Amino acid sequence: MYAARATFERALADKSLSAWSHYYIALTDYRIANYLLAQGKKNKDRASKHLKEAAEHLEEATREDITREDAKTVAAEVCALLSSVYGRQISQSGIKGIFLGPKSGNLLKKAEQLAPDNPRVVLSAAISAFNTPKMWGGSKERAMEGFQRAVYLFSQEKPTDPIHPVWGHSETYAWLGIAYMDRDEEDSARTAFEKALEIDPDNGWVKYDLLPKVKKEN
Amino acid sequence: MKHIPTSTTQWAKVLLLLSFAMPALAQNHAFVQGQVLDETGQPMAFVNVHITGTIDGAITDRDGRFVFFTQHMGKCKLHASFIGYEPAQQTLHLTPGDTTTVRLILRLALIQLDETIVTGSTYTTGEDETVTLSPLDVVTTPGASADIFRAFKTFPGVATVDDGAGLFVRGGDVSETVILLGQATVVHPYKYESPTGGVFGTISPFMVQGTVFSTGGFPARYGNALSSVLSMETQNMPAQKSYTLNLGLAAGSLGLNLPLISDKLGVRFTGNLSFTDLLFRINRHSSAFTTTPRGHDGNLNLIYQYSPTGRLKFFSFNASDRLGVRVTEPSFDGIYKGSSNSALHNLEWMEVFANWIMETSASLNHHTARKQLGNLDFSPRDLTLKLRTDIERALTSSGFLRLGGEIEHTDNRLRGSIPQGDIFDPQADIFELDTSYGARRAGAYFEINFEPARRIVVNLGTRADHHNLDDRFAIDPRVSARYQFTKHTDARLAWGIYHQFPDPSKYNATSGNPNLRPQRAQHRIIGLHHERDQFMVRLEAYHKPYYNLVLDHPDLNLSNDGKGSASGLDLFLKQGDFLSTRFSGWMAYSLLRSHRLQVRHIGSEIHYEEAPSPYDITHNLTLVAKMRLIDDLSGGLTAPIVGAVPVEGQGYYLPIEGPVGSERLPSFRQVDGQLSYLLPFGANHQIIFYLAINNLLNRANVLDYDYSTDYSQRQPRTTTFRRSIYFGAQENSHAIHFTRTHRLPHHPHTKRICGCTAINRWTKSRPADCQI
Predict the structure, then answer these.
(1) 20 to 30 Å CA-CA from B440: which of A117, A158, B339, B587?
(2) pLDDT for B331-346, tens place per residue?
(3) Residue B151: which H helix or E strand, with range?
(4) B263 vs A50: CB contact, 8 Å cut-off?
């Protein structure tokens, strides 16, 4: 992921694609941060730096003057990912929720307006609904519906441009499994995790963390 | 960084081979190769190296090496970057066919102000990952009796003068430590109050989310404290219903956490009943008490989150205690009866306005007591009202500005019958006392946290306080700085002026002096801090001169002629983390030299002498060791070993011939042990059984001397408890999950550790923590 990140950093020099470069740098930072956080508190500082970088790159991407045909797609993808990054920062430091919570919600709304059928936008909205307290608009039921809809949308997704993102299909099944676990529907959860591994056999989160938990509880 | 995709290395090699295999390419291109190292000379992999403004570049391999070709000729800048490090640049002059070799050094981007504690001498507890001790560490500290104050007594700079909870910091008296709960001052923070503080702290650890304890050099936001500050924060909204039941040899308690409206309105309650009779009987200590210490207290915490940015918190605390004890001294014999009632009510409002976070509170302390011994019947009462506001905003991505102000009004009333002669003589004249004192202090401060240079963080601030009984302002400039040597090691410096106003009764024109000025201290601190993984070491040296201390005066009753100083060295070593590691513990050592100008009464005359401070304890060593014996059984030992406390010599009741403080009490040594066993049952319940044995060595530590009427004989007064046992069980509902290796994300399906007694493993997945 570091190699990918460095490649996208160099790609920033190509101004015509710099919004996408910022997006992909942020995506690698976001994934590195999540990986580090799953390793425990010793990596928290490093993870925070990656989340901060991710947010800065995405904020930069929103400021880019995009004249490409896919401007709307870029904006939707950037908003959805930035919303998720803010959510992750809030989970690390509650006080940030005061500032970032409303921003995260607004970004998600904007992404949904721009691309209501983008599976990553739907996935981000569902994760947000799952993790957000009821008082602030969260809903487990809406999250479940979102995960299921995202599964369908990913199965239909046919990228028209190789630069457009295609990630998220395996993650959606992982989240669907988590939502089932939350409902104590262990069998459905296991099926979802197995489906996630079918799509991406190297999904370490599912392989080493989530699936063993279902098996253990059984 | 350790695992490099083979393809990357291969790609670099292929590129290198290609570059030599293609002369035509070489004629039109320049080759750039080199190595990127960190400050210690270690190669850095995955560093992005490229020519600024182009896409020409490469990623370093496992050995930090890179190679690429470019058509960009002439003067250009080579840029190397890696997250967490400061980028490096080097100017190149490229010509076709040439190979340029460079070496770049990347330096760690060391400082992130928003996550940095600048101030030295600060120890913290709570759930955050930067804390010195977790809540679980606090309650599992043997000898601490699950009391925050007693846990902090095991830290450097805090002297063990007896087996109570009083915080005597760096040569200062217990009154020089200010206790805060939120923004409110806890005027009476101890249960069973005594001249050395009290037996326990009044605030239950289960109501506290986190604490900050500073033994010196604290910032300008804290006022009217000469030596140290203990600041506690109350719990936030309960995530779900839970309860705690505790029954021990001397206390029973009930704790409830109820979210009344999910994420909007919640309540926390704890009630505690103390009954020490059984404890004293079992440990054979009951003979001295005519009424064994007993009491009850209750805490109520209401939290109303009325909007995503606005919150109201109401905290109410009420405690009563009483005891009766036979006072048998060579000079007299009688029964002392004491009772007290303390209450604290605090309403806090937090809101965000633009980019400012505002916190405002109004608090009320109320305390009444009655003390009876012979003909003495004394009833003090005090009332303290306080209003405080703090506002804070981030200045940039790092640094902040903080401003605030407070008004504190105190009303004391002293009533009672004071015998003028022998306290037990029924014929003695009685002076009927009924007097009131009022005082008002107003203070304001600013603090700014900034980064003037790489590796340096500074906290600069000033506060001003005004007392209505003193027409002058007390101005306290304060500064602390941190210099980061490496990622894990830093040096800290602090300097500041600290004022504390005398008790209002001392301004009385009859028995005091209306012209008294605030007492003043200067803190000078230098320290080194190193922390890596589970190991932490901190070494600090300090010098604290005192000025304007209140002293008896033959003509003025009281004066500000007192002065003195405290100098010392504090060492703190900590290894491991309770439950995360099999062994954990810490060692605190303090070296102290403290002296003050003190009064010596010779006949009716007053003489002044430079002498050791009353709590000048030269060596203070505390060892805390904990071990997980089997999966759910843990044990630990705490061993405070204290040099010696100067005898309160030459006072009115102790007319020892010789200079003040010329004799020292024997060393105070004690070993306390604790065992706890966790028994989970059902889906969401657990019971913790605990057994504590205090003073394992059964040592009679001397706290003072009692004298006969003619002072020809004396006998030592020793600690109340010799070897004693305490046991009990605590049940927790709703399996309050705990892990030290993961911070809990904020969503409804995570549970915060409440208080700290509950230990369990995760039974559900932690989705937000595991998202990759």
Answers:
(1) B339
(2) 667 888 999 999 999 9
(3) helix B148-152
(4) no
Pairing between β-strand B200-201 and β-strand B99-108 as defined by DSSP bridges:
unpaired
Q: Name the CATH superfamily for A116-218.
A: Tetratricopeptide repeat domain (1.25.40.10)
- Burial (CB < 10 A; 0-12, 13-18, 19+), residue B242, is buried
CA distances, B748 to each of A119, B221, B603 (Å)? 25, 34, 71
DSSP H helices in B153-272? none
Find the residue in A nearest to B357 (Cα): A98
Specify the 3-state DSSP secondary structure of B17. Answer: helix
A38 touches chain B (CB under 8 A): yes
Chain mean position to CA B466: 27
The CATH homologous superfamily to which domain B6-108 belongs is Carboxypeptidase-like, regulatory domain (2.60.40.1120)
Residue intervals of chain B classified under CATH 2.40.170.20 are 114-733
* CATH 2.60.40.1120 placement within chain B: 6-108
Nearest to A98 among B48, B109, B309 (CB): B309
Chain B residues with CB-CB distance to A134 below 8 A: 262-263, 748
Judged by a CB distance cut-off of 8 A, whether residue A202 touches chain B is no
Q: CB distance from A128 to chain B under 8 Å?
A: no
Q: How far is B280 from chain A (nearest CA, A)?
A: 44
Give the number of residues written for chain B.
Answer: 772
| B-proximal residues of A, 54-113, CB under 8 Å | 88, 90-92, 94, 97-99, 101-102
Write the burial class of residue B216 (CB in 10 Å: 0-12 exposed, 13-18 middle, 19+ buried): buried
User: Which residue matches tokens 């030290």?
Assistant: B740
Q: Give the mutation candidate from B44, B106, B746, B766 for the A interface (greatest A CB count, under 10 A).
A: B746
B764 near B240, Cβ under 8 Å?
no
Give the residue from chain A lying closest to B56, CA to CA. A10
A139 in contact with B, Cβ within 8 Å: no
Return d(Cα B441, Cα B463) in angstroms, integer.
13
- Residue A135: the pLDDT is 60
User: What residues have CB less than 8 Å from B461, skipping those under 6 apart?
Assistant: B219, B220, B221, B402, B445, B446, B447, B448, B477, B478, B479
| Inter-chain residue contact B262 with A134, CB threshold 8 Å | yes
Q: What is the 3-state secondary structure (H, E, C) of B112-149?
A: CHHHCCCCCCEEEECCCCCCCECHHHHHCCCCCCCCHH
pLDDT value at residue A41: 67
Which residues on chain A are in Cβ contact (under 8 Å) with B109?
49
> CB of A183 within 8 Å of any CB in chain B?
no
A191 touches chain B (CB under 8 A): no
pLDDT tens series, chain A, 218 aa: 888 888 888 888 777 788 889 999 999 999 888 888 877 767 777 888 899 899 989 988 887 766 667 788 888 999 999 998 988 887 776 556 666 777 788 888 889 998 999 999 999 999 988 887 766 677 889 999 999 999 999 988 887 788 888 889 999 999 999 999 988 888 999 999 999 999 989 888 888 888 888 866 55
Q: Which two tokens stand for residue A150?
A: 């995202």
Q: How many CB pairs under 8 A join A and B?
A: 130
Cβ contacts (< 8 Å) between A205 and chain B: which residues? 770-772
Q: Is A203 on the interface with B (CB under 8 A)?
A: yes
Contact state of B308 with A101 under an 8 Å Cβ cutoff: yes
Selecting from A31, A35, A94 the residue whose C-beta is nearest the C-beta of B746 gives A94
∠ CA B361-B367-B371, nearest 5°, is: 165
The stretches in chain B having pLDDT less than 50 are 1-24, 112-116, 129, 647-655, 734-772
The answer to whether domain B114-733 has CATH 3.50.50.60 is: no
CB B139 within 8 A of CB B756: yes
